[in-house]
């Protein structure tokens, strides 16, 4: 059987290679459903589009965009759109696959999808960013929709980007379709609680993992890599629980304070300056020094592939909470396991965002909206229940939380695949 070019021998350390190794590890726990396992290794659909726009100076620039639908077996595709100069098809395929696992792990009626444009959005004006978003939305419009595939914010995208996407899709279909994206502004059908939902999910799963492993949150030392929406929201919640945020790192630099940051000063500083660098309540440390910080909890909430073997050997934490997608390579995962460091994997740890996206999607269809307290209560209930089920699976098979999450999710995906059968 000939292999599609995109799937031939990916680097084991690449995002797609990491995902495939995770699938290999879960297949022995799927019983008769393993005969459908190849389904997990092949995205259903991958769209590569040219995104040309006229820049403010009158020149025309071309950008490469992607939308990958890994699985639509359990429902419409669901996953974010990122704008980043390092976006590749390999990365987007992996991110779409992790969305399939994540959605199934918390039992949402979605498949997995992801999108992106290879661009540095900081180099574009607001008008150029709008043109880029609208053209990209038009190019992928033939495969997205409220019942087909629902994008959401991701790295370097936000509620404004989603508003432009929703408006463009709506203009093209001739009717306002608020349910085509999630993460929208509140007054355009967005949901309360969505902005901080991913960070809240990291905190909720971290709280449960700490309780199960005997780690007291009051006084616990926390280091956060990536201080954007996810990292800062999680840090604030851990701070409110009595933990000390002692280190933070983002694209601007790394900072440290042994006594813990004053979050009431750090968060406004980041909003005002765009990063943690220059914060007066901390000392600057080196990029690699961040991974040597004495702490109890590390939250990688930046990009994939950040915890590699060399860093895994140096980590002093007891608990790793994966706020980002794919932040730990397979080899590093094994090292952390050998060292007795508990990892709550991305596919459950950061599922709070897509869970509240699901709430937003449901609210858009019903035109009935919940309070933020209702959102948070529903989110906590789903996340705690999903993690409990995963933990029981891990204990039963004596496997890691990551493999247990894949086992729960893949069983649901492949059971649906088996029952639906093959058409024609």
Short précis:
This protein is 42% helix and 17% strand. It is α/β, with parallel strands linked by helices and 424 residues long. The chain has a seven-stranded mixed beta sheet with strand order 9-8-7-6-10-11-12, sandwiched between helices. A five-stranded mixed beta sheet has the order 1-2-4-3-5.
List keywords for this structure.
13 helices, 7-stranded mixed sheet, 42% helix, alpha/beta, 17% strand, 5-stranded mixed sheet, Rossmann fold, 424 residues, globular
CATH class descriptor name of the domain at 197-349: Alpha Beta
* Rounded Rg: 21 Å
Biggest sheet record: 7 strands, mixed
Shape: globular
Query: How many DSSP E strands?
Result: 12
Which fold name is given in CATH as the topology of the domain at 197-349?
A: Rossmann fold
Tell me the distance between the termini.
Answer: 20 Å
So, the CATH homologous superfamily of the domain at 197-349? Answer: NAD(P)-binding Rossmann-like Domain
């Amino acid at each position: 059987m000939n292999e599609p070019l995109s799937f031939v021998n990916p680097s084991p350390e690449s995002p797609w290679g990491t995902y495939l190794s995770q699938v290999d590890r879960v297949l022995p726990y799927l019983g008769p459903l393993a005969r459908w396992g190849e389904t997990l290794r092949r995205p259903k659909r991958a769209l590569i589009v040219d995104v040309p726009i006229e820049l403010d100076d009158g020149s025309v620039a071309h950008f490469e965009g992607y939308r990958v639908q890994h699985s639509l077996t359990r429902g419409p595709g669901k996953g974010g759109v990122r704008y980043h100069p390092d976006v590749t098809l390999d990365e987007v395929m992996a991110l779409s696959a992790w969305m399939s696992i994540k959605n199934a792990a918390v039992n949402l009626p979605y498949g997995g999808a992801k999108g992106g444009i290879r661009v540095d959005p900081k180099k574009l004006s607001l008008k150029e960013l709008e043109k880029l978003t609208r053209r990209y939305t038009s190019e992928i419009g033939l495969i997205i929709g409220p019942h087909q595939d629902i994008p959401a914010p991701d790295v370097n995208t936000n509620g404004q980007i989603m508003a432009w996407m929703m408006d463009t899709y709506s203009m093209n279909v001739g009717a306002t379709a608020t349910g085509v994206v999630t993460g929208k502004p509140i007054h355009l059908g967005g949901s309360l609680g969505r902005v901080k939902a991913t960070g809240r999910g990291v905190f909720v799963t971290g709280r449960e993992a700490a309780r199960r492993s005997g780690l007291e949150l009051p006084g616990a030392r926390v280091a956060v890599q990536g201080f954007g929406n996810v990292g800062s929201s999680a840090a604030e919640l851990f701070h409110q629980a009595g933990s000390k945020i002692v280190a933070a790192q983002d694209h601007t630099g790394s900072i440290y304070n042994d006594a813990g940051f004053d979050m009431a000063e750090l968060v406004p500083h980041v909003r005002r300056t765009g990063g943690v660098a220059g914060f007066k309540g901390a000392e600057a440390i080196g990029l690699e020094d961040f991974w040597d910080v004495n702490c109890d909890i590390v939250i990688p909430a930046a990009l994939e592939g950040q915890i590699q073997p060399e860093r895994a050997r140096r980590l002093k934490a007891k608990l790793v909470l994966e706020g980002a997608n794919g932040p730990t390579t397979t080899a590093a995962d094994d090292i952390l396991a050998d060292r007795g460091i508990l990892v709550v994997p991305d596919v459950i740890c950061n599922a709070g965002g897509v869970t509240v996206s699901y709430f937003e999607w449901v609210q858009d269809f019903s035109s009935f909206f919940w309070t933020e307290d209702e959102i948070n209560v529903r989110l906590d209930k789903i996340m705690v229940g999903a993690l409990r089920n995963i933990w029981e699976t891990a204990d039963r098979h004596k496997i890691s939380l990551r493999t247990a999450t894949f086992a729960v999710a893949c069983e649901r995906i492949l059971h649906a695949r088996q029952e639906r059968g093959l058409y024609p």
